[in-house]
Specification:
The chain is α+β, with helices and mostly antiparallel strands and about 180 residues long. About 50% of the residues lie in helices and about 10% in strands.
Length: about 180
């Protein structure tokens, strides 16, 4: 059982994540699909107490099993926030293969996918401070578990879904580092 202090900290972590979601992801329209699930309160926010890869794998497995058993109308997606493990982006990036292995082991590859967000996210071929990286920067390391059917439906309903990434980079380049800090 978590102590009252850690629950308070978890509450603050979720609040910072929701603020990032509202201001950056929804506010800048980085993900045109996020607003609807946020408004409907279909996002599950889970703060992991994991301090090791094994503990995080176990938390991810529990979340995947829960989502697999829960209708999308109740929980569309989960943000598994893990502030106590993988502070280093390269270690986090390496862990993503393990996260995909959990999906495969549970035979859920056709049902779910995992998107990645980290405070120091860096795309291959970029410099650490390139504004392009901020499309995937979040206040804490997190794994975003998405339903494949929902992603497919959203992409089909959204014109030019393939251009979202390019549009996001253009948005952040216009905003710049100073604008991001204000955000």
């Amino acid at each position: 059982m978590k102590s009252p202090e850690s629950l308070l900290a978890d509450t603050q972590i979720v609040a910072a994540t929701v603020q990032w979601l509202e201001r950056a992801v929804i506010g800048l329209n980085l993900c045109p699909f996020a607003k609807a699930v946020h408004v409907k309160k279909q996002i599950r926010y889970v703060v992991s107490a994991a301090t090791s890869a094994g503990e995080l794998r176990a938390d991810l497995q529990r979340e995947l099993e829960l989502l697999a058993q829960t209708p999308a109308a109740e929980i569309e997606t989960t943000l598994l926030i893990h502030p106590r493990v993988f502070d280093d982006f390269l270690d986090y990036n390496d862990f993503l293969a393990e996260a995909d292995a959990v999906l495969a082991a549970l035979e859920l590859v056709q049902q779910f996918q995992i998107a990645s967000f980290h405070p120091r996210y860096q795309f291959a071929g970029t410099q650490p401070d390139d504004i392009d990286n901020y499309t995937n920067r979040s206040p804490f390391p997190m794994l975003h578990v998405l339903r494949e059917a929902s992603v497919t439906q959203a992409v089909q309903a959204f014109p030019d879904a393939a251009k979202i990434f390019t549009k996001n980079i253009e948005t952040l380049r216009r905003l710049g580092h100073a604008g991001w800090k204000l955000l």
